[in-house]
Fold each of these.
Amino acid sequence: MDTLMVERINLMNMAKMSVKGLIESALSFGRTLDSDYAPLHQFFVVLEYCLKHGLKGKKSFLGQSKSFWGPLELVEKICPEAAEMTSSVRELPGLKTPAGKGRAWLRLALMRKTLADFLKELISHKELLSEFYEPHALLIEEEGAVVVGLLIGLNVIDANLCMKGEDLDAQTLLKKRQKSELCPLSKLVWNPLLYIPTLLTTPTRTTSFWTLTFSRKKLGVIDYALYMKDDKSELGSGSMTAILDQKNYLEELNKSLSVTLSNLQSKVDALEKTNSKLGVELAATRVQVSSLEEENAKLCSDSADIVETTRRQIEASKLDVDTELQTYKESRQGLDELYSEARLQLREESQMRLDVEKELELQISMKQEMEMAMRLLEQDVHEKQDVLVSLRHQLQEVKEINLDLVHDLQGLDAQLKQKNELVTALEEKNTKLDASLHDYEQRLNDIEKERTSALNDGTKLRQECGEKIDCLQKRLDESDRQKVQLETDIRIEREWRQALQQELQKDRQQINALQAELRAMDTLRQELAGMREEAQKLRSVNLEQELTNRELGGKLSESKLKMEDIKEVNKALQGQVWLKDREATNCKLCEKEFSIARRKVRAQRFFTTPSTGRQTWSLTTFYFAQHHCRNCGEIFCSTCSDNELPLPSAPKPVRVCDLCHELLLQRYSSGTN
């Protein structure tokens, strides 16, 4: 078993024994304990060992110091209820070391019966404890929860501890001095500190409760609290226990009531907030209701005014019917003229559309040509990357211009489609207007004919006989009805005329919009012409650049050939040596021996010049059948070196051997290819 685990289990068992012994002794002796009670000191010793287990040490000049005051300060952050207690511990006079503050904090928490609650909250936040404790510490492992659970039983004990006279900074784990008056044999009380090192390293079975109590009996541990009782304490113990039970009950009840009070207070705050919101909303609704009532009164008065004005308008409209008939005829003539103008505009727009389509086709063909040219240019550019870097940028700009032209042409296609749709809609509306006008004219002619026939019949009937007055009166009534119908028809026709005028106005607006679009098309045509000119210029520039590229390519090929020739000459000069005449005894190719007749001879000759008559000496060289090859430097006979070719090192053709002749011919033929 791991030694760290054994230490944790032994500390847990010691905590169990100390808590159990403290509770049993307190219940037998009396629930109220003071600072001189020995089991209470033993409990604080064991609890301090539990808090120090696995504690990280802080390095200083004097060495490492381990204090459990740092973890206890975290309780203030986790539980706001512990803030008052922690601040009171800090303000206690005489406490200078962190160990003394931690001991004072433990005693105050025990007196307030909040020790178990605070430590429970502390071990629940293990991420905060990891800053102060090692991973194998007691409080971080499961044994820490068991130890904290044991501390809940201490709430039945009332502790009255006075910390003013005690020196908690210099206090050892067990109080050295104890009052000998109360316990004269206190020296025999078992001190667990003497056995803690062995308990921490021995297995768990030896630290059980029964074996430990057995060892205590062997060592002579005596519970002197049983001998300290007197008769009075026995008589008053029953009442004291009842009072303490009531006190504990009241404390628990006070805690629950405080919790319920805080919950009720939060609910009251929430209800007050909702009440204030509802009050504001109620005031707003009242203001809205008053404004709505005022608007209702205004609407009633406005409705009465509207009824009166409509009645007057109806009377005036009856008088305007005849005049509107005449204006209707005049407006019809104007509509015919507008229709003819619109038809002419449609023809012009269709012609313009055809022109634009032709231009689009030309642009598409130009685009294809430009794409082919761009592909060829790209191939040339890939072949001549080192020389034509600047030309590549220009070609890329030409590509972008072509793409912009394509996008512009697509936008023009979409606009032309929209205009064609508008034209077809206008034609349909015009046909509908013509049909409706024709129907209205026929109806008016029929009504006029019926009216004239009715009037003629009435005059004839009046002249013929007076007996048919009743019949004529009926016919007059019928004619009045027809008149009313005619008035209604005229009103409807007037409404139709207004609708037609509105539609005509809309058509005019559309025509104006189309005219504006045509102007925009003209501007686009001009831009297109300018772009064509730019494209033509770019083509000319492109052709010029191609010509320059070809010239540069020819010059480059020539320079490359010259460079290759120079390299070959250098190689030949570096690897070959001009053979001396004395060293050559045989032909290099046919291996014929050079005799005296085949040698090269230099001789002096004496001759006279005919013009001056003077005699001079001259050094002349006589060449026989022995020759040098100007390419390889070897000496050959006349048959093996009877060839002449131009070399890079000589401007005129020079003598070469047969082998060099074939090699140079092959090289020249491959260079020309």
Note: The longest strand covers residues 601-608.
Amino acid sequence: MMGSRFLWLLWAYTCCWSAGFCGKVVVWPTDASHWINVKVLLEELVLRGHEVTVLVPSSNLLIDYRDTSSPFTFEVLQVPFTQESLDAIMEDFLNFWMNEISNLTPWEIMWRMKKDLEVFTNMSKQTCDTLVTKPQLIAKLRQAKFDILIADPLCVGGELIAEILAIPFVYSFRFSDGNVVERLCGGLLSPPSYVPASTMRLTDQMSFVERLKNFLFYFYMDLFFLKFWQNEWDGYYSNVLGRPTTLCETMGKAEIWLIRTYWDFEFPRPFLPNFEFVGGLHCQPAKPLPKEMEEFVQSSGEHGIVVFSLGSMVYNLSYEKSNVIARALSQIPQKVLWRYKGKKPETLGSNTRIYDWIPQNDLLGHPLTKAFITHGGTNGIYEAIYHGIPMIGIPMFADQHDNIAHMRAKGAATELDFSTLETQDLVDALNTVINNSTYKENVLRLSRIHHDQPVKPLDRAVFWIEFVMRHKGAKHLRPAAHHLTWTVPFPLSVPLPRPASPTADNCLCAAKKVVYSHVIVVLC
């Protein structure tokens, strides 16, 4: 173990010597799949000669700070919540989205989401407290003279630490609900006529009613989060920094926003010069499979295999639902490799093998792979795009519905509803995606777009982090909107359908456009 760490350090110092530049990076990470993604970036930074220190809570999901072979230095924050309580919270959260939500009214769902947000916010504050209330720890971090902080705005606190340490920070980010953080704090332009709000499950081709819903959702999310931030975070940040400020103002100081998508995934829309696409930075060519797994894959013959994973977080499928799925998988000619931790389903077919863990990227890159059953997480979506594998999406929460909506719109996936999923639904979806060549052709087109970039996503991410370290920021890319009061850059009017009266019609449609978020959009 120590030998592996020594080799990492030896390589880092060799790179540092040859490049003539060695930076010091501190990280405020977000857990789960976010950590899986950013870990690849951090490992690359170490390979380029930089020192990486991760501020990690003592109770977390996937960040193994006890791993002595890790190339990172871990500064463990002793949080008051236990590992058991965190696991229980996450299990309850997943159970809600997988098993309970279909039986609730929209208002009950919103109330539950608000309560979950309060729980996670409280844990975030407790994590922040373990650092901001410890003068000795702050002094230690200041003495380390870090050049940059990397954070994910989903886990509030990183930007506050950067302010305390007086260093620039960069975000690694997928999205926020309704794109509130990107729009209100980052200044990103989002015309509601053709830019669907995240979590709305819409595309850029919207009817008038969908555009109106999109506009209202943006409006509601703005009001909700501005009020929530004011109540929960603005005073906290002001007290810690000793001056009046807000969470959004502090987030807006991010030098670069590394967005974990690309135009193979996104719908065309305006972006800012300090927003950079790095989607798929974790993807890589497939490596050989373990011997036993390769033999099983080869036994599939001309039918090939199906890869099935619902991600790193989903492990509590009900036994009933597991049998529904297993029965469907037993009815297809392909061999199936299923990442699954629960009780073995009694309907499991001889063509299906279950594993606690699978080398997903390597399986998706195997020439015999025909389809990928996925929950729609961004990491898995990008591995499928990278290797050109069509998808059957079974989204459950967070960005997953939006991700699958994007893939459906681009003809690379079909979607199933987990709450109503029946055996025949999955059988039909698999047969459609595998036997209809259009899905394969479309995802191969996306794969060609992904690979045909002037700079690889991982190299692009590293470049901008190093750029910020070299220049102590990237202020020349920062839009002037950050320095205006919120009313100045947002001339608003109310979107209305075309009136029945010819006179009113002439008055309204003389300027037939509505201004929103810096951009004129046509609504009638």
Note: The chain has a mean pLDDT of 89.
Amino acid sequence: MKQYLAIGIALFTLNACSLPQSANTGPLEHWDNYSEKVVSDKDIQPNQGLVVFYREANIEGPAVNIYINGDYQASLLDNGFSAVALCANQNLLTSSLSTNTKGGNRTHGIKFISPSKQITYIKVKQVKNSVPVFEFVKPEVATNELKAVKMQTQTLSRVKQLDCETNGYALISTSINSNIAFPLNKHNYNDLSVAGKQDIQAFISEIKALNQKAISKIVVNGYTDPVGAETYNQTLSEKRATAVSDALKQEGVDLPIVAIGYGEKELIVDSCAAESRNKTKRNECNLPNRRVEIVVYGQE
């Protein structure tokens, strides 16, 4: 069964203030760019997640247009945020800078999971070579940064209402940093670092806190950066996903687990080639791309 995702939440409405029609009062309407409303997930359904996009004041450049699954969401200004309820599954974030010379980018971007009844925070980290660079931010960091940011109301979201799955949606998820979890070019369970195992164990505690009967499967996705041969990266991502899957089993997770490698196909940051003359900067830029994602599916 499926149910429709309600977008008409008060959190995401456009504010307009009508004025008396008179030659002395000026425009009939006054539009505000920002609202004092705050982030809230109280109206989110079990098969939905809330995603908050924000931009701090120190980011140079024009407004950053945000698209979700090909639909326009917002044009982020300095010190502005925009929030949207999405199906608790994989979604596509694309973006481009505001311009009157060409259409926005609706197809090339970042795929991410928005887990059930959780808030995912994504901020514009910088605009580099006319390309917005995004960062997934931990809740404790984002909530502090959002104190200085206001909700934007100058445009309307055009994200379509979708029919969200009522079973088999993402309950919880995490991303394991491969740079911390694995030594360079290593990929086996025995290669996992102490820090990597601790991150996995912490997430296992979250898995075990769930109703085990509500879980249908766990999917482990491995990803690499684009440096090196594509075939090597594909194999490396598969082996690292398998290693994390083995770690879950070793820690007593007795549930169906699927391990998948995506190689360099789904980058979080795809502009690192611009740092090609500086190996250190290129490596630092690629850090978010080297990761292993764990997603727990089911229904409450």
Note: The chain has two domains: 2-165, 169-298.
Amino acid sequence: SPSLCCRIDVGRMKIELFADVVPKTAENFRLLCLKLLPYRKDGVPIGFKGCTFHRVIKDFMIQGGDFVNGDGTGICSIYRGPFADENFRMKHSAPGLLSMANSGPGTNGCQFFITCTKCDWLDGKHVVFGKVVDGLLIMRKIENVPTGPNNKPKLPILIAQCGEM
């Protein structure tokens, strides 16, 4: 399975993707990490580098990846728009699992979240496609930042760099 590394303002997380179980979802995330999309904004390739974790809920999850609007409303994917839920074989059974954020069936795009605990009520609704294999303490640091309205961190938590290992 491919491994990716994200350097965030507060540290570094290594992520393993479940490409053997959910290849389309894993590839979408991988290419967004590497900015290998045909899309450009003002001539610059788009992807996760430079976007923020825009939603943080202690004892639940940290959410990011909205490089479109930065607030949880943006959808973009390597498939040109929202894409279908690939399968729900992997479960939200532990902290550190990477899952697609969506607004209902078939609305996957660029947004993802990382579980901070077991979240079995999300099974069958959100596609788990990877896990944090190094950097759970960084996830905990993000989980504990002060937040304001809509669970938005009071200070930006920026994805400074991301790429393959």
Note: The radius of gyration is 14 Å.
